[in-house]
């Protein structure tokens, strides 16, 4: 950017030394071209300057920054890489992330956004909706529906590679979910707009208890957590989501019509993962990671089952604020 500015100044200084009329025209054209270039660097655009896909970056982030989620990491890497490398996807990518609180669902969405958009979550092409904040009143359902549809349509028209994250999906009105269904489907285009490059991510705690049960069963049987595979969680997850009236999916045909490409389970986090989160948090705060400090903090957190203290009740969620008391 600085180099570009210097170039603008330099070229205007140079052209000033030549014949006035033509150089003014040339300088004007040059400045316009440079101005355009500058504009593209400063303002986010829906092109290769501002978005792409860094698959090795995503792989590395999932491996080094996301703790205790070997199943989710694997599914996400495969799903996102497959989709982003497909020049002609038949439908948008639809991921549904499920799990206990504080296990990394928002965090993973952030990592995915960072692997695609230069500006990550702050990109103008990434849209985060939280059910309770954006759609709080059931009586405004019809208004929410049309606003949401217009928002999605307008933004995908503006940039086909848009990402929509719906948080607290279990608290979202089923009618609202129904209203976005057409965008998730296998259509070439809807009213002249193609949604096939878009990415939809749904986050919820639905199915979290069933996932915990599977993890607990493995632990009780003395089996390694890493032995847990997607197949061990898939059935329990989809059935529970389908049967849970509060999950938001209940009244819709999202599952019926196979609109969700991947259900991604997030395992409850153990003591050692909380410690890893604590150490990472210290580093993020610019401190030297100190195992003794983090250990003191982790010991004071609440774990379940009560006797065995295996899984963290809040996952890694409150670590950032808690840590301040122990430093
Ligand atoms: N598995 C994980 N690995 C590394 N850090 C994690 C993990 N899970 C959570 N964290 C940390 O904890 C913070 C809170 O987690 P996050 O918001 O992703 O939880 P969540 O699964 O969305 O929970 P909730 O269901 O309550 O919304 C993250 O910003 C991240 O710093
Ligand atoms: Mg969350």
From TrEMBL:
**What name does UniProt use for this protein?**
Torsin
Keyword ATP-binding listed: yes
Q: Give the residues the record marks as binding ATP.
A: 99-106
Per the record, the GO terms for biological process are: nuclear membrane organization; protein localization to nucleus
Q: Name one GO molecular function term.
A: ATP hydrolysis activity
What UniProt keywords are attached to this protein's entry? ATP-binding, Endoplasmic reticulum, Glycoprotein, Nucleotide-binding, Signal
Give the UniProt subcellular location, in the record's own words.
Endoplasmic reticulum lumen
Q: Which domain of life is it from?
A: Eukaryota
Which family does the entry's similarity section mention? Belongs to the ClpA/ClpB family. Torsin subfamily.
